[in-house]
Amino acid sequence: MDERSLMGAPRASSTVAVQATNDDATASKLSCVTKGYIHDDFVHMFVRRSIKRAPLINRGYYARWATMRMLLKQFLDSGIPNGSGLPQKKQILSLGAGFDTTFFQLVVEEQSVHKFVEVDFAEVTKKKTMLIATKEVLVSKLGPTKPEIDPGKGEIVSEHYSLLPCDLRDLKTLDDAFTKAQLDAKLPTLILAECVLIYLEPTVSRQVVKWCAEKFETAAFVTYEQIHPDDAFGQQMLRNLESRGCPLLGLHDTPTLESKERRFTDLGWQRALAMDMDAIYHQQLDPIDRGRIERLEIFDEFEEWNIMQAHYCVAYGVKDDTGVFENFGFSDRKGANIEKPAIPPMM
Ligand SMILES: C[S@@+](CC[C@H](N)C(=O)[O-])C[C@H]1O[C@@H](n2cnc3c(N)ncnc32)[C@H](O)[C@@H]1O
């Protein structure tokens, strides 16, 4: 791919710049941890130099983290115990996982899953493999049997955790990761793509969404990404990322909540819902925790906050004939799932 910018022409996507978005996400997470917004015992191990983010960014990252955690917890708590009364085996597949630390945090919180698989570009998984391999506290979380750790290839394969190189633009590499991690197509699976698909060409992100629907029998696919490219804030957002060499290649293809939902329902997912972060923050997140974090820092950027939150959303698609995901997703204030089709009134 040509990574040079031509005069007047839109800048091409640079793989290095896209990978660097991971450093930004990790630094934001650490800033939130340091200020007390979120709890994470491990993220500091993945950041070279800590950066203090503005209250607006901290609050935005908190909302993103709390939403993903809420959905993750719903998935972990859901399900049908198997015949012997043991909890159902479940899998998580994180696409473009970067330096995410959720696996390690879940081990500490005794909420581990059967398989937790992370994929990213080899350049990213190599760095992450090295960081994990040199920290006994992390290696010890990989499980009872000796993990296979190969920093040269950027691969970790252990009983419950795998980190594997993959370029989502090449589905063969995703297939290889699926096989190497020994994912089971029949087990309930949560697929996460947090700020990832938006950096891909629409044809590519659609292939990934379709691949997941075809591969897993029972699954939910959750994305966190931008919306509304056409207003002043959206255009500024596009320009900022384009000038950094990581344009939001997918934003014009799925510019609205409806289009994010349709991407799922058009490509093999049975139901879908998208909600912007402004609505999620006020209607879905725990009001007590929200009250707690709102007292952490002086905050007066309310207008900017509302506009920013209206330009990000979480969308998910669900494929489920078993009922595992029955209570998964956003709910109305009475706790009912809102994406379920309404039952027609009795005539
Ligand atoms: C903004 S970061 C998000 C990281 C992580 N999901 C999080 O939320 O903390 C985007 C990640 O997607 C990865 N990514 C983007 N395009 C990819 C591709 N084609 N194949 C694999 N990973 C990709 C990047 O390398 C980067 O780690």
UniProtKB/TrEMBL annotation:
It is a peripheral membrane protein. It is an enzyme of class 2 (transferase). Keywords: Cytoplasm, Membrane, Methyltransferase, S-adenosyl-L-methionine, Transferase. It comes from the Eukaryota. The keyword Membrane applies. S-adenosyl-L-methionine binds at residues 64, 96, 167-168, 194. One of its GO terms (biological process) is methylation. It is found in: Cytoplasm; Membrane. Belongs to the methyltransferase superfamily. LCMT family. This is Leucine carboxyl methyltransferase 1 homolog. It comes from Physcomitrium patens (Spreading-leaved earth moss).
